[in-house]
Amino acid sequence: PDLIVLAILDTQAMVAPIRKAKAAGVPVLAVDGPTDPSVAGDVMSVLSDNEVLGEYAAQNIIEGLKGQGRESGNIIVLTGTKSMLVTQDRMKGFNKVMATAPQYKVVDEQDANWDPQLSGTIAQQLLAKHGRSGVQAAYGMADYMALPIIQAAKQAGFPIAGKDGLIVTSSNCFKAGIDAIKAGELYGTATEDPG
């Protein structure tokens, strides 16, 4: 091939193939997540600033809870695959901003593996575990993970957004996320596209 384009889901597993491509003289372009640092110099990259995406998610939650007049609040987080640098970077940014508002705290963080169905299942479990009085906000790391949180909350009788409903935010800026914002259910998102 003249070029290999990668969406890196398993950072460690891609080290050997990237080294093989380099040895064969085939350029590699990473487009979804960073490579392992040991081969970062061997690829070209067009990447999102995932740390900033995490910061935006935390800013949305803080803004939403403050907008409701809440002086404290509990948050659940459903992440992408925790072994991925993308996920780790988003959580780094998220935690950095959340540290500026210690009145709002993460009470549960679960790996939902970028899976919308798993996100819905985990959301049901966490909302049942903590109850309406125990969760005021949620971060689904992608729009398609946040929307199942909203669905699970509705099924559990949680109000969504508004003056006292669950504040849900995400990242990735998919059409479904924008539609949910327009419907007044998803508080916010942020574009992942480097363009």
Descriptive notes:
The protein contains 6 helices and 7 strands; from the N terminus they run E-H-E-E-H-E-H-E-H-E-H-E-H. The protein has helices spanning 15-23, 50-67, 85-98, 116-130, 143-155, 175-182; strands at 4-6, 28-30, 44-45, 73-79, 104-111, 137-140, 167-169. Helix 4 packs across helix 5 (143-155). The model has no long low-confidence stretch (mean pLDDT 93).
Summarize the structure.
By secondary structure, the protein is of the alpha/beta class. The protein contains six helices and seven strands, in the order E-H-E-E-H-E-H-E-H-E-H-E-H. The strands form two sheets. It has a four-stranded parallel beta sheet, with helices on both faces. A three-stranded parallel beta sheet has the order 1-2-3, covered by helices on one side.
Write the layout of secondary structure elements.
Elements: E1 4-6, H1 15-23, E2 28-30, E3 44-45, H2 50-67, E4 73-79, H3 85-98, E5 104-111, H4 116-130, E6 137-140, H5 143-155, E7 167-169, H6 175-182
Parallel strand pairs: 1-2, 2-3, 4-5, 4-6, 6-7
Helix pairs in contact: 2-3, 4-5
